[in-house]
Amino acid sequence: MVAFRSTDTSGRTTGLLLRCVLYCLLALGLIIVDKRYDHLGRIRRLLSVVAYPVQIAVASPFEGWDWFKDSVTTRDALRADKTKLEAELRLAQFRLQRYEALEAESQRLRALRDSTAGVTDRFVIGDVMDVDLDAFRERVLVNKGAGDGVFVGQAVLDAGGVFGQVARVGQLTSEVILVSDAAHAIPVQINRNGLRTIAVGTGDMHILKLPYLPTSADIVAGDLLVTSGLGGGFPAGYPVGTVAEVKRDPAQSLADIDVKPAAALDRSRELLFVWLKPHDAEPPAQSDKPAQSDKPGPAAKPAPKPSAIKPTTTAAAAP
User: Fold this and answer.
1) Predicted pLDDT at 115
2) Domain boundaries, the chain
């Protein structure tokens, strides 16, 4: 008790413990009143206004130092940041372009797959590796060869239609001749009326010709040409091109007809090597066999017919 007692000049003893208890009770009462009725909120707000300049004065040196460091950033640091951001931007753009290329490639491959439904037995997709730069040849090199089952004369398509035929085969690569090559010809028919003819290349990737139709042929600009399937090289019904222009000269017996190829001969990167289904390749051979084996007895009769035709031709040739 001695620690909590003191003696004043009058000699009376003052109880420090009693005063401490009174102050604690007063503080507790103020806390309760402030909590329930917020009587001291206004006082605190006034005190915060008074203390705000002190807070500003205390924080100003640190904020001033930060501002000074930011303002004295060197030009080299800014250039380094700029170079880094440019590199990140280029990388992001490169990735974005790659994603777009992959999406376009996926769409092309899906179109190739859909275009072969119900027509071919199987197919293989190849990529164009090289383009023949010879002005008189329209050929490309593809990364599929004999190891993949590719053979000479095989039909090659793209997402738009007939692209060409295999001209030469290696073990790992093959050379494809385009339908626009001057040495290439393909049997076609007009989709509108079924008229059959042959489309030949001109050496120009944008033009094919129909050189064997007379001026009286029923063909107009806009007619769709499709493969006829004759010869067994190409599946029937595939688009070859669209008639672009028909020129009829009364002095000529044959019409001058330009055809725009259906395939993107100058843009396609993925090509489709197709194998025809057996029933697509066999009809020409089967149609001839029944005609010869239908009646074995009269087979002797057709033999004289060629001899009968022969004299007529020679007689016609004699004059």
Assistant:
1) 59
2) 120-276
Q: Which CATH number fits domain 120-276: 3.30.70.20, 1.10.10.10, 3.30.160.40, 2.40.10.340?
A: 2.40.10.340
CB–CB of 239/160 below 8 Å?
Answer: yes
What per-residue confidence (pLDDT) applies to 297?
43
Q: Percent of the chain beyond pLDDT 70?
A: 72
Q: Indicate the pTM of the whole model.
A: 0.52
Query: Per-residue pLDDT averaged across 297-301, rounded?
Result: 41
Residue 298 — φ and ψ, nearest 5°? Answer: -70, 5
Mean model confidence pLDDT for the chain: 76
